[in-house]
Amino acid sequence: MDKEVQSTIHHLIERCKDGAKGYKTAAEDIEDKDLKDLFRKYAVQRDSMITELQDQLHKMGATDDESSSIEGTLHRAFIDIKAALTSKDRVRVLEECERGEDYAVKAYKEALDKNLPGELKPIVQQQYQDVKSAHDHIRSLRDAAKANK
Question: Would you tell me which of 15, 29, 92, 133 could form a disulfide with 85, CB atoms 3.0–4.6 Å apart?
Answer without folding.
Answer: 29
